[in-house]
Design a protein that fits this description.
- The structure is a single chain.
- This protein has about 90 residues and is α/β, with parallel strands linked by helices.
- The chain has one domain (about 1-85): STAS domain (Transcription Regulator spoIIAA), CATH 3.30.750.
- The protein contains three helices and four strands, in the order E-H-E-H-E-H-E.
Length: about 90
C-alpha cells in the first residue's frame, strides 16, 4: 500500500498505517516526493512512523524521485532502517 508523506502529513500517515494494518496489508511504501529535501522534522517523523509500522507488524519502505531527498535519507542513516527505492519521475 502506498502512502504519501510530506510536510504536515505525519498524523495523517500514522492513521493510514493503522488502516493499512486493519485491512491486512503487510507492507507500506512511503512516497517522499512531498519533500524537496529532508529537514530534521521529516527525519524525526520517519522514525516515528517506522516505530508505529513495527508496532503494527508492517514492513515499511520509502521511495522518491528526488536526489536531494535520497542524499538526506542516506546521510541520516535511515537507509539502514528503512529500505529506499528509487522511483523514476513520470515522463
Amino acid at each position: 500500500m502506498g502512502l504519501s508523506y510530506g510536510p504536515q502529513a505525519l498524523s495523517n500517515v500514522a492513521r493510514e498505517l493503522d488502516a493499512a494494518a486493519e485491512a491486512g496489508y503487510t507492507q507500506v511504501v512511503l512516497d517522499l516526493d512531498g519533500w524537496a529535501s529532508l529537514p530534521d522534522e521529516a527525519i524525526r517523523g520517519l522514525i516515528t512512523l517506522l516505530r508505529e509500522a513495527r508496532r503494527l507488524n508492517l514492513d515499511m519502505l520509502a521511495e522518491t524521485t528526488t536526489a536531494a531527498v535520497r542524499e538526506d535519507f542516506v546521510r541520516a542513516g535511515l537507509d539502514r532502517l528503512i529500505p529506499l527505492r528509487r522511483r523514476e519521475a513520470a515522463a
